[in-house]
Specification:
The chain has 285 residues and is mainly α. 69% of the residues lie in helices and 0% in strands. The chain is built from nine helices and no strands. The radius of gyration is 20 Å and the shape is globular.
Length: 285
């Protein structure tokens, strides 16, 4: 199964072409605390003979590696967001400059994310660069929402993002969410429809339809934002599964950077959707 997050798709890229030792590999994966024989497939990194060696060795990714690199990546996002909030004010005198820098940062972050997504190996410089520019964009956007829509909403959005992430992790660990092929297919289909609606809404707005399809205000806007949050949580569950599989199969340590990259993108998605919902709710009240 490929994650809805394309960064993780390489980890199970060979599952559909499993060799004769597939069952043995899955059994070893289950013994390591990962997927069982009913899981996602085989190890794309090692043969059955060396899975145990790689998992026990210093070159295999661990949960600590994923946590540390994810903390570094998210910390970079948070640091640059705070700095951009402080150094790029959105008052009347500076709003055009701040918006211009934020738009440029968003474009750079998008390009860096695409470059990394299509690389065969993770690049810490690219990933941290993406995080830095994403933080600049988020800082100016958050400052704008806080200044012109609802003071204090940013703290609520951050807490809401952590709540969604924590709830998803608990549900995943308790196996309340069954992350399987059907789940992935449903998420992929729902995300495709969600993104198509966003594109259509943007086109309507660009060609003079005012509020577009109405996703920016009122009850419809809140419902659409809640759907976005649910999709973000689904992405996160898929990402957790991919991390768990990579650790169980003894993926190389450098893959921790890919995990950090994918998790950061998913958490940014969730933050933006939570911010959308809270902004609409507070502005309507």
């Amino acid at each position: 199964m490929r994650s809805s997050n394309p960064i993780f798709s390489r980890w199970n890229a060979t599952k559909d072409t499993a060799p004769a030792g597939a069952h043995q590999r899955e059994t070893v994966g289950a013994a390591l605390g990962g997927p069982s024989a009913g899981g996602y497939g085989t190890n794309p990194y090692a043969s059955p003979a060396d899975i145990g060696t790689r998992s026990a060795g210093s070159t295999a990714v661990t949960m600590d590696d994923v946590v540390v690199r994810t903390a570094m990546t998210l910390g970079t996002v948070a640091l640059t967001a705070v700095l951009s909030w402080l150094l790029l004010p959105v008052d009347e005198a500076n709003v055009s400059r701040s918006y211009g820098i934020a738009l440029g940062a968003a474009l750079v972050a998008f390009v860096l994310s695409l470059v990394q997504a299509f690389r065969r190996a993770p690049s810490p410089a690219l990933i941290l660069g993406y995080a830095a520019f994403e933080g600049v964009f988020l800082g100016v956007l958050s400052s704008t929402v806080s200044t012109y829509i609802s003071p204090g909403v940013i703290v609520q959005a951050v807490l809401g993002t952590f709540a969604v992430a924590a709830g998803t992790l608990i549900a995943y660990r308790m196996r309340w969410i069954r992350v399987d092929q059907r789940f992935a297919g449903f998420v992929a289909a729902a995300t495709t429809g969600f993104l198509l609606l966003l594109i259509i809404d943007a086109l309507f707005s660009a060609f003079g339809a005012g509020e577009g399809l109405g996703f920016h205000s009122g009850g419809l806007g809140i419902v659409f934002g809640l759907i976005g949050i649910v999709l973000g949580a689904a992405f996160l569950a898929l990402d957790f599964k991919q991390v768990e599989d990579a650790i169980a199969y003894g993926a190389p340590r450098e893959e921790a950077w890919m995990a950090a990259f994918g998790l950061t993108m998913t958490l940014v998605w969730i933050y933006l959707e939570v911010l959308r919902v809270l902004s609409i709710f507070n502005s309507d009240n």
